[in-house]
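Tip: read the tokens left to right.
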């Protein structure tokens, strides 16, 4: 049985600054290099793929379709799918995931988890949609993927203090994706082509999540 991500937030394990070298262009799907400084091979490697809107209007929406495949060598139990949402978005988003998935959103970090471990060769998924604030301009940048923890069998019932004391290893697999925010000209002419409209993400099993800090 998997635990809430707040366990690791409380233990300070997820607050480590990210340093993801070799981040690829958003147009090239790759497996992103892991966080620098980790010398121990992770229990599970993940292949990350993201589909998303390449452009949107000011005040518009961006929908992300995130997939994470466990390449092994072991099953993944303590892992969380999601990542860093763009700056300048409204503090409520809509999301969908496998049955039993739960999510938490605090600051720019939006993480979700399911009730079951992910076996080698299996893929987890998460779809979510953010809405830009009207004043947000330029490029909306997100870093999406997985954070995983190397938790051995028999450690599932340890308290957060014990996990913190043991210094459980954690790994990031994140992919950077960028969406261009298009501002219409004051006097659009025939040459003006608006970005394709983004439909509201509202499947039958969608959910809403609010940012606890409301600081995006």
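Filled-in amino acids:
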């Amino acid at each position: 049985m998997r635990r809430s991500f707040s366990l690791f937030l409380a233990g300070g394990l997820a607050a480590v600054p990210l340093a993801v070298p070799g981040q690829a262009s958003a147009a090239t799907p790759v497996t992103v290099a892991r966080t620098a400084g980790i010398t121990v091979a992770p229990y599970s490697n993940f292949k990350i793929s993201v589909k998303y809107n390449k452009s949107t209007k000011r005040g518009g929406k961006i929908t992300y379709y995130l997939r994470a495949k466990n390449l092994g060598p072991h099953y993944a139990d303590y892992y969380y799918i999601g990542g860093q949402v763009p700056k300048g978005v409204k503090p409520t988003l809509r999301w969908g995931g496998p049955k039993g998935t739960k999510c938490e959103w605090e600051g720019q970090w939006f993480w979700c988890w399911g009730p079951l471990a992910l076996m080698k060769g299996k893929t987890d998924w998460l779809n979510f949609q953010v809405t830009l604030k009207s004043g947000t301009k330029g490029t909306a940048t997100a870093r999406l993927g997985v954070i995983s923890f190397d938790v051995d069998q028999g450690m599932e019932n340890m308290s957060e203090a014990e996990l913190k004391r043991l210094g459980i290893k954690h790994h990031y697999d994140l992919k950077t994706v960028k969406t261009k925010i298009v501002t219409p000209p004051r006097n659009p002419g025939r040459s003006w082509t608006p970005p394709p409209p983004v439909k509201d993400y509202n499947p039958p099993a969608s959910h809403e999540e609010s940012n606890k800090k409301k600081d995006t």
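The two ends are 31 Å apart (CA to CA). The domain at 46-182 is CATH 2.60.40.1510 (Immunoglobulin-like).
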